[in-house]
Every structure is written in structure tokens, then in C-alpha cells.
Specification:
The protein is globular. By secondary structure, the protein is mainly β. Strands 4, 6, 7, 8, 9, 11 and 15 form a seven-stranded antiparallel β-sheet that branches. A five-stranded mixed β-sheet has the order 5-3-16-10-12, with no helix packed on it. A two-stranded antiparallel sheet has the order 1-2.
Length: about 260
């Protein structure tokens, strides 16, 4: 359990300014928190991080992570949201270039605000929201799958489950959704969503299908849901496990876990 209560974002000072007699509005940050990205895969990955609009870019948006290693860094001490994913099968280019078989972000080592190319498994994170310092997190295969991952909170208050899509779906991916490597004998390296594979409005929940009433599960999203019931599998999917986790000390995103 966390040992201290989360701080309010803004505290109204009880004293007055010496000159002018105006109240002082003092900004206060939330309690310190660590984000840790773990590579439990038997191969290197290049994690990518994309912040939602207006939020800080963390760790330049991407870095190298050898097999069986981790990287920890301070979480923002103010509200933040974004996504974290693994880039795989990457080949460094000149300068800061990096070209990846899955999850590529414009051929860059540090994504710098760019998202990853589908298909890629996503960890979605929302920190420091609501007055009790909520941390929301989840796993999404709406954009397809490249590696299994879990999101694990530590020392939070309330309902703080581990959420995951642990199975290697490259082993069971339907043929029409498979992405194969041009090298290595054409091994399956990722599994597309139905939307990515066929680009129809219905499968992508676009236009007349862009509402909870008209956006429905398909046989492709149902494949992902059978394999990973805790994950979001299409645009208006609902998670099978909800949570209200307040002020975790650490949030781990673990690839191949």
C-alpha cells in the first residue's frame, strides 16, 4: 500500500502576499512515481512511447532495450497519458535512423511524438487523473499484435490488477491477418487487425459505424478476444476487467510476459 496520500494539484495558500494582500495560489505536484519498461523477450526490442496531444514526450519517445533488461525513469508529476509499444526486427541506419519490421515510427530511433505503425500491441496509460490521483492502464490489440505484454502496478491503493495479453498470437494468427518477415524464412512477425487487413468502414468502425451502437465485434476481433480477454480488441470494445488504482509507486510495462 502507498504510504502517503496523493497531493492535490493546486493548493490555496492560507497566507496573503506581503504587498497587495492577494491570496497566493501555489502549484503542487503529485507524489513521485516510476515508469519501468521491461524486455522479457529472447530478442532485443526498441520501445516506443507516444504521448497524447499536449503531453510531455518521455525519454525522447523511444530507446533500445536488450533482451532480459529494463529501463526505469521518473513519471511526470502532473497529468499524463499516452501509449507504449515494442518495435521489433529493427535495423539501425545512419544517424538517428532505425527501420523496424513492426511498430516502426517513421524510421526513427526516438519517435519524438510519432506513433508506431500497425500492427503493434499497445500499453495505454493515463496518470494522475481525478482528485485521488488515479492511474488507468490497459492493453490494446485494436491495432493488431506484435508481442505479448502486461501492465503491472506496484503499491497502489484500491483495485490494481495486472492487465495483459500474454499469448504469442503470431503462432495462432489467421492466415489473412499474418505479417511475415521478408527475411528469416518468412516467419510470422505480427498479426493484423481486421481493419488493418481489409480497410472497410465496418471493420474500422468509421463513418456510419463510428458509434457504440453500430461498431460491433467481428470474427477477427473475436479471435483476439478469445486469446486475450483482458485486451481492447476493436474501437468500441469494453474491457473485461475494470480497475480504480490510486497512486501506484511504479507502473511496469513488460514485453513477452
Amino acid at each position: 500500500m502507498a504510504s502517503s496520500s496523493p497531493k492535490l494539484l493546486l493548493l490555496l495558500a492560507t497566507s496573503l502576499l506581503a504587498c497587495g494582500g492577494l491570496p497566493v495560489l501555489v502549484a503542487a505536484d503529485y507524489a513521485p512515481m516510476t515508469l519501468t519498461v521491461v524486455n522479457n523477450c529472447p530478442f532485443p526490442v526498441w520501445p516506443g512511447i507516444q504521448a497524447n496531444s499536449g503531453h510531455d514526450i518521455l525519454e525522447g519517445g523511444g530507446f533500445f532495450l536488450p533482451s532480459l533488461s529494463h529501463k526505469s525513469f521518473p513519471a511526470p508529476t502532473h497529468p499524463w497519458s499516452g501509449r507504449i509499444w515494442a518495435r521489433t526486427g529493427c535495423t539501425p541506419g545512419s544517424g538517428a535512423q532505425l527501420h523496424c519490421a513492426t511498430g516502426d515510427c517513421g524510421g526513427r530511433l526516438q519517435c519524438g511524438g510519432l506513433g508506431g505503425a500497425a500492427p503493434a500491441t499497445l500499453a495505454q496509460v493515463n496518470l494522475h487523473h481525478n482528485s485521488d490521483d488515479q492511474a488507468s492502464y490497459g492493453v490494446s490489440v485494436v491495432d493488431g499484435f506484435n508481442v505479448g505484454l502486461s501492465v503491472t502496478p506496484h503499491e497502489g491503493r484500491g483495485n490494481c490488477p495486472v492487465l495483459a495479453c500474454r499469448k504469442d498470437l503470431t503462432q495462432t494468427c489467421p492466415g489473412e491477418l499474418q505479417v511475415r518477415s521478408p527475411a528469416g524464412g518468412g516467419a510470422v512477425v505480427a498479426c493484423k487487425s481486421g481493419c488493418e487487413a481489409f480497410r472497410t468502414d465496418e471493420l474500422c468502425c468509421r463513418n456510419m459505424y463510428n458509434s457504440p451502437r453500430t461498431c460491433r465485434a467481428s470474427k477477427y476481433s473475436e479471435f483476439f478476444k478469445r486469446e486475450c480477454p483482458q485486451a481492447f480488441t476493436y474501437a468500441h470494445d469494453s474491457p473485461s476487467l475494470t480497475h480504480q488504482c490510486a497512486a501506484p509507486r511504479e507502473l511496469k510495462v513488460i514485453f513477452c510476459h
